[in-house]
Amino acid sequence: MRVGFESAVFSSLTSDFRLRDVQVNPTYVGSGFANAHFEAGKWSGEVQVGQPDRYVQASLKNWDVQSDEISGELVVFNVLFEDVFRALRTSIELDPDSGREPVLELPPAVVEELSALTAQVDAWVTVEGTSKDPRLQIQTLEAKTIRRFEEPVGAFALRGTGKGASGRSTRCAGKTAPPLQSRRGSSTSTAK
To answer: What is the C-alpha to C-alpha distance for residues 71 and 61, in angstroms, rounded to an integer?
Structure first.
């Protein structure tokens, strides 16, 4: 790590870290790296963690402290839905005695259904704008080989744009795979 000062004022930072055996709650994520840089009033950085066959990478390309302009991206490659759900589950279902509020409250039936799903997820999301009013662009969001209680369900792909806190300018388009016949003889529905 290198830190710079000009006239006794913090002016620059360069740091690089290796991440090893990262876990989120009970879920093993993998290993990787992180770095952060600050110079001329602008931050940038990157975190990548995962395993050889799947990873998550978040990049802050630029955050100008003065103007609050930001740009960055999130790339998810071949991540297992069940790992993500297991990692986040403690933020969804909190012990009532913990004194903390859940980040997202879901009915128990929804939590049970999500627990039954498995899938491989790929995503590429970019962000631009300001930290208070970001513009999101979902370049791609795909779930492949979706299964419910080991029964094949299908797949879906989604692209879209959204405008941050203002709630303006939201657009989305997607498609699902053709319905699959289950072993029980019923078919899944396809959204259009």
So the answer is: 5
Q: Count of CB atoms within 10 A of residue 171's CB?
A: 11
In what helix (H) or strand (E) does residue 115 lie, and over which residues does it extend? helix 108-115
State whether residue 146 is helix, strand or coil.
strand
Tokens of 57: 């990478």
Cβ distance 22 to 30 under 8 Å?
yes
Helix, strand or coil, per DSSP, at residue 25: coil
Measured between alpha carbons, how far is residue 100 from residues 26, 48, 87, 89 in Å? 19, 29, 17, 14
pTM of the full structure: 0.74
Backbone angles phi, psi at 152, to 5 degrees: -60, 135
Q: pLDDT tens, 41-79? A: 999 999 999 999 999 999 999 999 999 999 999 999 999
Asked if residue 70 lies in contact with residue 130, where contact means CB atoms within 8 angstroms, the answer is yes
| Count of CB atoms situated within 10 Å of the CB of 18 | 8
